[in-house]
Design a protein that fits this description.
By secondary structure, this protein is α+β, with helices and mostly antiparallel strands. The chain has helices at residues 3-28, 50-56, 61-65, 68-73, 102-116, 153-162, 173-180, 191-194, 198-203, 239-250, 284-291, 302-307, 340-343, 400-403, 414-424, 427-434, 467-472; strands spanning 44-48, 83-87, 93-98, 119-123, 126-131, 134-138, 142-147, 185-190, 215-224, 227-236, 271-278, 309-318, 321-328, 350-354, 357-360, 367-372, 375-379, 408-413, 442-451, 454-461.
Length: 473
Amino acid sequence: MNKKRWIITAAIAVVVVAVIVVCFLCCGRKNHSYCSVVPKDAKALARVDVTGFMKKHHIDLEDVLGAGELFIQNSGIDVELPFYVFVTPKEATGVVLPVKDSGKLKTMLSTYGEMLNIKLSEKQGYNWMEMGDAIGCFDNTRMLILMGGGMNARKILLTLMEQNEEESIMGTTLYSNVEKLDKPLAMVLPLEESLTKGKTLVGNGVDIKPECLDADVAVTFDIQGSEAIFAIDLVLNTEEMKNYIYIAEHEDKLKKIDGTFVAQGMSHPLVWGSLSFDGSKITPEMLESIKAIKELADIAGLDKALTSLRGDISFSYGDDKVLVQANVADNHLLALADNVKALTGGQLEATKLTNNTYCIGKGDEPIFIGQKDNTFYVSNSGEMNALVGKKAESSLVSKLGDIKECYFYVSCDVQQLLAVMQKADPNMKSSLLLMGSRLKELDQLTLRCPELTHAELVLSVKDGADFVEKMFK
């Protein structure tokens, strides 16, 4: 091959590679350059993709919004792209909207300005709007709104509007973690920011290492089949945290629910929850950490009581009655009743009703504790004694497979909850009627934890029907 042919071949190869790269950059990546206005030090970031959600689930915008669809289409906002919400280190909240037509946006704000008390102006090359505590700034590609920015809000907005991508959040782990979450709603914030009680725990003597807080909390929303799911994930940023979770999951320090009490005790409770705990896995170091919490330090026999737990612990609530049941290996948990008087400074005293049953307190709010075989129980009603260990009717039997895949599971019967709300507040009935017949399709509101780094808040419809079909169409 002569020199000229080599040059031609190399040139063609370069062009082909360039075309592939351009196609990848244009088609393989989402162009969210308008996010360059988000500050690099933002401590929380959320992405909301309403149009993407509706397209994914084949929801017609006109069916949901009616005439409101025309308003949105003529707003000048690019509704095909997601918008972003962020929180600054000084607790101000920002919203970033992609702009498709700044002229239409300005017209819309002018049209509704007097009604909504919006003040418009043009300064420093940007369009500005003020509405109460909120101040906004927009150009031909993006609109940035800041709430709670204080006296320096305008200066902050101007700085953010003029910064480039390298100066913004777009190169950070926080932004990357949000973009990896391919869901209609995605939010990420550092774990340390979300653990508002962490310092209190440390103050009580529980040792939380700083590296154990080096993680992000990711929250997403989507619909799958009969369920609308808010998912909460712990995104681990250190090997120490990853190893800790691995040990907890694989060395059986924590175990998943056995399902012992799914259909035992109270029938059709309003709220039912369960977790599993094996007290034999508690190490001396863990007991010392527990005793370091000042509220628990003086409870005699606490270590033996905790180590006696052997499996599921459940909670049931309905008709103003509460029943807690737990699998135990011995009677050390029941023996705590003998220390009630000392623990409460003489304010409460346990009365022994039978060999394995006690009543704590007197009057209208007594507490009954007892044990039947290997089931320890606590209740606010003496009637529960007869139900312990007995088979009960429960709609959760059909969910047993899901329950046994979880470390933690709490479910609320939505229809019972609505009935209780109407009974407590007669005006609630008319409010619920305004929300339409769709409420009658709701079944359970559930909080479940199938993995130590993953939990879900789930709203489901009856009979496993399609959630979108029942609630949006």
